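Aim 2 progress. For RNA-binding S4 domain-containing protein, the working sequence is reproduced below.
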Amino acid sequence: MHAHDVAIRDESIKLGQFIKLAGLVATGGEAKELIAEGEVTVNGEVDTRRGRTLHHGDLVCIGEACARVTSAAEDEDDYFDEATADDDFDPEKWRNL
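Predicted structure tokens for this construct:
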């Protein structure tokens, strides 16, 4: 069983929200159903509470598909990729506008 990491912005997230964010289910309705049926485990234990609060490091599984809650990097929003930057951009043209 291999878990992929899913970053969240805040300190915590609800179980139903997380399994949808992680791509373990397609819809919120599917998440609600699987949780109620006891198909979802958190840190190896079945949990039927859709509103359970998850924190960084928690491992959520549905069958063999697993995802781990991780924190987003502080500078993730400020990422600049030089390789995909617009090469035709001329800073001199925009400097005096």
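The chain has one domain: 3-71. This observation will guide construct design in the next reporting period.
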